[in-house]
Amino acid sequence: MTVRPHTSLDTELLSEIIREQGTPTYVYDARILDAGVCRWIDAVGDPSRICYAVKANYNLGVLARLTTHGIGFEASTVGEMARALAAGIPAKRIVLGGVPKPPEAVEEGIRRGLDLVVLQAAHEVEAAVRAGASLEGPPARVGLRVRPGIRAGAHPSLETGRADAKFGFGPSEIQEAWIALDGAKGVEPTTLAFHLGSGLDSLEPYEGAIEVLLRLVRDLESSGHAVRELDLGGGLGVAYDEDGADLEPAELVRIVRERLDGTDLGVRYEPGRSIAARAGTLVTRVLYRRERDGHPALVCDGGFTDFGRFSLYGAQHRIEPLEGSLEGPDTVEVLGPTCESGDKLGTERPLHGVRPGDLLAVRDVGAYGFVMASNYNARPRPAEVMVDDDGWKVVRQRESLEDLWRGETVG
Ligand code: LLP
User: For ligand 1, is residue 272 a contact (CB within 6 Å)?
Assistant: First the structure.
């Protein structure tokens, strides 16, 4: 890919990128990605204990950049694992995470020699035992995801550790699953895991969940089974409506160390959003302006098929004009172009002075942005661009119309 020079990451640069790439386009700043990882490395120390949740942003350029820091990666599907491998990440640095998966995924994870495979239902344990039986060489490390029964205080769709969640084993089911693995050839149970949810705005839920895991560690120990590490999942939220005030990894690490004092348990973290979100901006162009129920609205060429977080979770991201004025008394709705009235990027945004043709920057969309984009209304998905000190490059081409029917036939 050609790298084009730039002088600074500002309006001028984003305008230049858009002149060449059109809208809507995702732009990632590699230096902010670096800062996101370094915040975790500074807090945790050993980079291999940080397993970036690939689902947050799995562009190969993003993964390749993150792997230069020596961190690990958490993939929740065979597809995410394949992407990580395609980005040049060694299998030994990849965890197959504790998200529901078919038996074939567990078998493939074990066959590939991943760092860890986290199992979260009985059929996954059975698949691991089967795969281990035919494994040559050292045993595959496996873990069990626990559903600790903790409310994380996140958006209901993003809470995953509650007693009624579909994920993981209830605490009372752990002994039996662990014993099945401990007795099996080719697998070695090492880890108890949880993931409480995503977008947490308090660290308190971790404290309760760690207590649940520590009780399980003690129960297993007293029946002769040693747990080597805890995997605490992801979850740290980002304050989307402002610039800063995010939860600090260092504060989480401090709490974890305090709770685990006196044990020799290792710890693994799986942050996604807190590494990638701040690095991304989605640039979209205003097509026209319209009054809706007496309130101004801007209709843009990017909408919920490109960035779905407002439509899905009501997430209000900062939306700023690249140039032009904010002046005017009213806030506006920012709407997408598709055939649905719920297609919105945000509401009550202070963009009164924005005019048709102006460019808008939707901020902090580096996590759960492009990865959740769809082709609904047969809309090609946006381009993705990466900016670095020495210039910018396209890390994913905008989809073409032909891309939209690739693999289909007419007869
Ligand atoms: N580990 C596991 C097992 C997970 O399921 C997840 C996220 C993570 C780690 C990373 O969590 P994070 O640090 O990014 O909070 N689409 C939603 C987010 C769904 C996250 C699902 N699991 C959104 O746009 O907010």
Answer: yes
Catalytic residue among 38, 51, 300, 339: 339
Q: How far is the CA of 39 from the centre of ligand 1 (A)?
A: 18
User: What is the position in ligand 1's atom list of the atom closest to the CA of 309?
Assistant: 24
Nearest CA to ligand 1 atom 23: 368
**Per-residue confidence (pLDDT) for residue 6, from 0 to 100:** 36
Q: Distance of CA 276 to CAs 38, 116, 281, Å?
A: 12, 23, 11
DSSP bridge partners of 95 = 74, 116
Is 74 touching ligand 1 by the criterion CB < 6 Å?
yes
Ligand 1: distance of its center to the CA of 370 in Å? 14
Residue 65 in 3-state DSSP?
Answer: helix
Sign of the dihedral defined by the CA atoms of residues 378, 100, 105, 266, in that order = positive
Spatial distance between the Cα atoms of 227 and 243, rounded to a whole number of angstroms: 40
Q: Domain map of the chain by residue range?
A: 97-270, 278-400
Mean pLDDT of 131-147: 97
C-alpha torsion sign, points 28, 34, 40, 43:
negative
* Cα distance between residue 359 and residue 141, in whole Å: 49
Residue 339 known to be catalytic? yes
Residue 409 CB partners (closer than 8 Å, separation 6+): none
> What pLDDT, on a 0 to 100 scale, did the predictor assign at position 4?
41
278-400 topology per CATH: Lyase, Ornithine Decarboxylase; Chain A, domain 1 (2.40.37)
Q: Which two tokens stand for residue 407?
A: 């693999």
Ligand 1 mutation pick, 146, 198, 232, max ligand atoms within 8 A of CB = 198
Task: Please report the atom of ligand 1 found closest to the CA of residue 98.
Answer: 3
Question: pLDDT digit string (tens) for 297-347?
Answer: 999 999 999 999 999 999 999 999 988 777 777 899 999 999 999 999 999
Separation of CA 114 from chain center: 20
Strands 295-300, 280-292: pairing kind: antiparallel
C-alpha 289 – ligand 1 centre gap (Å): 35
This prediction's pTM: 0.96
Task: Provide the percentage of residues in the chain whose pLDDT is more than 70.
Answer: 97
Q: How far is the centre of ligand 1, averaged over its atoms, from the C-alpha of 321 (Å)?
A: 29
State residue 8's pLDDT score: 41
Q: In this structure, which residue's CA is closest to atom 18 in ligand 1?
A: 198
CATH code for 97-270?
Answer: 3.20.20.10
Report the distance separating Cα 84 and Cα 90, nearest Å: 8
Pocket lining: 97 vs ligand 1, CB cutoff 6 Å: yes
